[in-house]
Write a structure and sequence with these properties.
Elements: E1 7-13, H1 20-28, E2 35-40, H2 47-52, E3 57-60, H3 66-76, E4 81-84, H4 96-101, E5 108-112, H5 127-144, E6 157-160, H6 161-165, H7 178-188, E7 193-197, H8 213-232
Helix pairs in contact: 5-8, 7-8
The chain binds guanosine-5'-diphosphate and magnesium ion (MG).
Length: about 230
């Protein structure tokens, strides 16, 4: 509970057995989270069992993909505000307070992993990822009339339930380029969006999106195509 609002956290999870328990613990330790929804996305390891041993609610999404898992989580979460995160150790539970602090003035609060002091030494955020995330965010900002945006790939973000209701059923992306679609649809629906700096740490377990150059490039190109397509439509 934060003020008078209930708070949900959504964790998309594909093979995250190594850190899922600690992640649930860490986000609950913020003291404001009422519900954590773990969306197990056909994990082949013990993610599901590990998650079920926590106070989190575990749902199983069979449609594979980062976007599919997050969209399912957005439908399942019951809080007045819904926070998307990852259970891989990269995000810090107490950072939800930074997002919540802006939730009175804005409907959607996106994290940005561009502040040097908050990028931990082990984080997967080399110059290529940093510039790429920034450039795609700027493309989105200029083509879709956004506020200042500097990171197109940060899962950690908050959306108020009433704001989400206006466009939730229009979200279509099931793959790794889900995040920009959420911002574009939000802007199209007059949702007030702001970015705030968040911590970004090293990951526990294998990275499935930006862990390889190929995965990074594919996701980047898909994001750019989506941003252009929405502008032209
Ligand atoms: N790549 C990928 N991630 C998924 C999928 N389903 C759920 N996820 C989760 O989405 C998050 C992002 O993936 P991750 O491997 O951390 O990518 P990275 O943040 O670029 O290193 C993690 O929490 C995954 O467990 C899926 O089908 N593919
Ligand atoms: Mg990750």
């Amino acid at each position: 509970m934060y003020g008078s609002r209930t708070v949900s956290v959504v964790f998309p999870a594909y093979n995250e057995e190594q850190h899922i328990r600690q992640a649930v613990e860490d986000f609950f330790a913020s003291g404001v989270v009422d519900e954590i929804v773990v969306v197990d996305n056909n994990s082949k390891d013990r993610t599901r069992e590990e998650a079920e041993a926590t106070p989190a609610r575990v749902v199983h999404e069979t449609a594979q993909g980062y976007g599919n898992a997050l969209r399912r989580g957005l439908r399942e979460a019951t809080g007045d505000v819904i926070i998307l995160a990852e259970p891989d150790g990269t995000f810090v539970g107490r950072d939800v307070l930074k997002l919540l602090a802006y939730a009175d003035d804005f409907d959607m609060v996106c994290g940005t992993r561009t502040t040097r002091e908050l990028i931990w030494a082990q984080a997967n955020m080399g110059w290529f990822l940093r510039i790429g995330n920034w450039a795609v965010a700027k493309l989105l900002q200029f083509l879709h009339g956004g506020p200042s945006l500097s990171d197109c790939g940060c899962t950690l973000r908050l959306i108020r339930r009433e704001a989400l209701a206006g466009f939730r059923d229009k979200l279509t992306v099931g793959g790794s380029h889900f995040l920009p679609e959420m911002v574009i649809l939000a802007l199209k629906h007059g949702v007030r969006v702001i970015e705030v700096p968040v911590n970004y740490r090293g990951r526990v377990g294998e990275s499935k999106i930006t862990g390889t150059l190929e995965g990074t490039l594919r996701t980047g190109f898909n994001m750019i195509a989506l941003i252009l397509r929405h502008r032209l439509s």
